[in-house]
Structures are given as structure tokens and as C-alpha cells.
Design a protein that fits this description.
The protein is mainly α. About 70% of the residues lie in helices and about 5% in strands. It is built from 24 helices and 3 strands. It has a 3-stranded mixed β-sheet, sandwiched between helices. α19 runs antiparallel to α20 and α21 runs antiparallel to α22. The N terminus is likely disordered.
């Protein structure tokens, strides 16, 4: 049921294009803007994300998230206007799912299924899917869908339930049923969805071309999607499909790229390393570990430098997940030696991140700090490495240093709840109760849980070590959060 309902929410997103984008994007008109403003789209996306983050299949893995956001932001860099008039900070994430799929939520949240990351044969194929979802967001398809619903009535509850059940066997047929309960309404919504998919294809194609990726990646990946879903997609009648037939989409893209010069894109080393990591994250069971190990050992037989680095990295991560830090370190050393054999000065952030993980798991806090310091110097912009450095300082019981570092980071990156979670943990180790609950309040607020954040401020106010300065901060933040909460309640009532 959740997956099917997500598919409806995923029919995508969000953002009013600027004037510079007007020539390549169609005008949406005032009706759609009245249905869901860009600000409301963001709030709706945040609400959905709160539920997704609590789901066990949400892959809250920092190296994976950092890679996806780096790739996604490289696409957005060539079309900054896709962020819309409110300049959304897009967030790209992964969920554990065996279906080849991705989805966009309102306000710039884009999810990728783990199976899709594994199925991509190169970075251009993965970029093509992410560019397609960015296209959904840039076209504000959620607002436009709501504009259609206003004309066609709300979706009947019975059709929603039936569609959710049907989606287990046939996602497209389930989507069709969920998007309308009456014949004419169904057809109108399906027509809109097919048009939205075509728009996203075309916008995504332009984005990936401008970002330097191979446009053939979109054609190749659509072909693979067609092969993987032949049992329930193109065999369905066109009038029961929410997406255009894959063959139609491939033909459209081929026509648009026929006269373009071929451009080759060199994949980053991060791509196969992250695929190796996802292979393990997708199925962390004992059998999953055995299957992953066999796959990595086969990868080593390819004898290419990249395949050997990725295979050794994968075996190192399997060993770490199985609690064998010594073997993990040995395999990682082999991976790093293979990397440096091709280029003595080569460094890789994914390998460095695993090196810190291993030191922490082996209960070697001093070595973990040293490893994290080297990684910070090599990759100063990596948010994952910064978080690991804080973890290493905490593991080494350097609590005051951890607080200093985390407070500085929180000033620079105010919208990262992970920083405040780590701050709260470190303040607790120092028995600074007021500061601990203040940090928790900020974390809850950033995650969209204002009532819980206000409760934490109340606890902080009652803490025996709350200073006059602390109380001043608590009072100010409480006023702000209560005002935000009242606005939320008002908007909920109006909605």
C-alpha cells in the first residue's frame, strides 16, 4: 500500500521555472499556481520525507547520499533555474527496493530505488533517470496534477484502495486505477500523466546533455527498463497506462538525438564503488552477504583496474558488516594499493570514508581521528567525512574538541540535523543537559517535528545547568517555533 501511494505522490513535483527557462518549459498558467504554491510544495515534500525517513527501507547511508547528491547537483548546475523561484535545495536519496524505479516528491526531493542504481551500466544511465526526475520537479507536475483534479473531482477512496492492491502485480495498472474512479476522469488523468512523462524525458535529456553525460544513456536505460518490465508494461493497453509506452519514449528520444554528435563521458571511480556498497545495503541478510561476496570475487576476475578496486572495496565492506575489521582493513589496503598503482597521488573519498569506518569499528579512536584528519584535508567539502571526523573525536573522548568542531559546522551548515544529533550526544557525554536538549530541539525542528522540538525546549528550560544565556536562547527559539507551529496549523486547516 505504501509503495503504491508513494507512486501517486511521486507523480511529481515542483518548481515554477524562471523567465530564463521559459523558452524550453511550457507555461503552467495561474490555475496550477493557485493549487499548490512552491512554498507549499516544499512543505508537502518535507512531510512525506518525514514518513520515508522512518521507513526501514530508507537507506540512510552517508557515502551513498553524498554520491547521489553530488551527481544530482552536477545536473542542476547546468540548469539552476530548475530550482525554481524559491531556490530549493534538492535532496537525492535511495530506498531499498527491487523494482527498477525512481520518483520525485514535491519541493525537490528525489528518490532512487537501490535496484536501479545496481542496474545502471554507467554513470550516464543513472544520470538520465535523475535528470528525468529533475524534469518532473522543474515542470511542477504536482501542481498541474492538482489543477486537473479540481476539474475532475477527488479520487474516490475505493479506487485508491483497489489501485494500491492492483499495483502489487501491475504498478502501471494500479496507478491507473488510483488516479481516478470514473471512466472520463481516469482517461483525463492518464493523458496528463503520459504528457508529464514525455515532458520530463525531454527536459531531462537537455539537462544531461548540457551536463556532459552521454544522451545514449537514456535510450539504453529505457531499453533495459522495457526488458525488465515486459511482463506488465508494454503489454498493457495504452489507455490503462499512466506512463507512455517505453517504445514510444525511446523513439522520441532517438529522434531528438539523431543529429547530435556523440559525446563520451568518463565515469568517476565513485560510481562502481557506490554500486558495490548498494549491493550490500540492498540485501544485508546472510544470504545477501554470500551473494555479494560471490559477485565481488567474479568482479576481481575481470582484471581491469576499476573492477579490481570496486571488488576489493566490496569485499572490505562485507567483512566490516560481518564484524571482521582486520579482514576489512586488509582488503581496503589492497584496494588503495591498486588505486595508487595507476596514480601514486590518487585519493578517493569513498575509500577514505570506509577507512574511517573500519578504524571506528575496530575501536581504534586515535587512529580514526588521524584517518579522518587526513581525509578532511583531502576532501574539505565532503559532508560525510566531516560527520565522521566528529564521530572519531567523540570515540576518542575528545568531547570539547567535538563540541567546538560541531558548533562551527552548525554555523556553516544550519540545515543539517545530523550535526545537532551529534552535538546532543556530545553534550550528554559532558553532562550539559540544557545544551543537550537545545541541540535536540534544533534537530527535531529541522526534521519537521515542531511539537517535539518545543517539548525539548521546555526540558532544556528546566535543566539544572541552564544559564541565563541559555534561557535567553530558549525563550527566543520557543517564540519562533511556536509561531511556525501556529502557521502550520493554520495552513492545515485551510488545506
Amino acid at each position: 500500500m505504501l509503495a503504491a501511494l508513494l507512486a501517486v505522490c511521486a507523480l511529481p513535483p515542483a518548481i515554477a521555472p524562471s523567465a530564463a527557462f521559459a523558452q524550453s518549459l511550457p507555461s503552467l498558467g495561474d490555475t496550477e499556481r493557485e493549487e499548490l504554491s512552491p512554498l507549499m510544495e516544499r512543505k508537502l515534500g518535507e512531510q512525506i520525507m518525514r514518513d520515508i525517513r522512518r521507513n526501514r527501507d530508507y537507506l540512510n547511508d552517508e557515502p551513498l547520499q553524498e554520491y547521489l547528491n553530488g551527481l544530482g547537483n552536477s545536473l542542476l548546475a547546468v540548469r539552476p533555474e530548475a530550482r525554481g523561484e524559491t531556490q530549493y535545495d534538492f535532496f537525492f536519496f535511495a530506498v531499498r527496493d527491487p523494482m527498477l524505479n525512481a520518483f520525485a516528491l514535491p519541493g525537490g526531493f528525489i528518490g532512487v530505488h537501490s535496484a536501479l542504481v545496481l542496474a545502471a551500466q554507467n554513470e550516464s544511465e543513472l544520470a538520465s533517470v535523475m535528470a528525468h526526475e529533475i524534469g518532473h520537479v522543474a515542470q511542477r507536475h504536482i501542481a498541474r496534477m492538482l489543477g486537473k483534479q479540481k476539474q475532475d473531482m477527488l479520487i474516490p477512496l475505493a479506487a485508491m484502495v483497489l489501485g494500491a492492491l492492483t499495483a502489487t502485480a501491475s504498478p502501471d495498472a494500479g496507478m491507473a486505477m488510483m488516479m481516478g474512479g470514473q471512466g472520463l476522469a481516469i482517461q483525463r488523468r492518464l493523458n496528463f500523466s503520459r504528457d508529464a512523462e514525455r515532458e520530463a524525458d525531454r527536459v531531462g535529456l537537455d539537462i544531461m546533455r548540457e551536463a556532459g553525460f552521454e544522451t545514449s544513456g537514456m535510450i539504453n536505460f529505457f531499453g533495459r527498463l522495457q526488458q525488465a518490465s515486459r511482463n506488465y508494461t508494454d503489454s498493457a493497453p495504452p489507455y490503462l497506462r499512466s506512463h507512455p509506452m517505453t517504445t514510444e519514449r525511446i523513439a522520441d528520444i532517438e529522434a531528438r538525438t539523431r543529429d547530435q554528435r556523440y559525446r563520451q563521458h568518463a565515469d568517476s571511480l565513485d560510481f562502481p564503488l557506490i554500486q558495490a556498497r548498494v549491493k550490500i545495503l540492498q540485501d544485508p541478510s546472510q544470504q545477501g552477504m554470500l551473494d555479494a561476496t560471490a559477485a565481488f570475487e567474479r568482479q576481481l576476475q575481470q582484471k581491469t583496474r576499476t573492477a579490481m578496486i570496486a571488488g576489493k572495496y566490496g569485499l572490505a565492506y562485507v567483512a566490516l558488516r560481518q564484524g571482521d575489521a582486520k579482514k576489512a582493513q586488509s582488503m581496503l589496503n589492497d584496494a588503495q594499493a591498486t588505486l595508487k598503482a595507476g596514480s601514486p597521488t590518487a585519493r578517493n573519498v569513498v575509500l577514505s570514508s570506509l577507512a574511517i569506518e573500519i578504524k571506528l569499528a575496530a575501536r581504534q579512536p586515535k587512529e580514526a581521528v588521524e584517518e579522518a584528519e587526513r581525509a578532511r584535508n583531502q576532501f574539505p567539502l565532503s559532508r560525510g567525512i566531516a560527520h565522521q571526523y566528529a564521530d572519531a573525536l567523540f570515540a576518542a573522548a575528545r568531547y570539547e574538541d567535538a563540541v567546538t568542531f560541531l558548533r562551527d559546522q552548525a554555523q556553516l551548515y544550519r540545515h543539517e540535523p545530523q550535526l545537532y544529533d551529534r552535538l546532543a550526544k556530545t553534550y550528554a557525554a559532558l553532562n550539559k543537559q540544557a545544551q543537550q536538549h537545545l541541540a535536540l530541539a534544533e534537530s527535531y525542528a529541522l526534521n519537521g517535528s515542531l511539537p517535539a522540538a518545543i517539548d525539548q525546549l521546555s526540558i532544556a528550560r528546566r535543566a539544572p545547568d541552564a544559564s541565563f544565556y541559555d534561557l535567553s536562547i530558549i525563550d527566543a527559539r520557543e517564540r519562533e517555533m511556536k509561531a511556525q507551529r501556529l502557521e502550520e496549523i493554520r495552513q492545515e486547516k485551510e488545506g
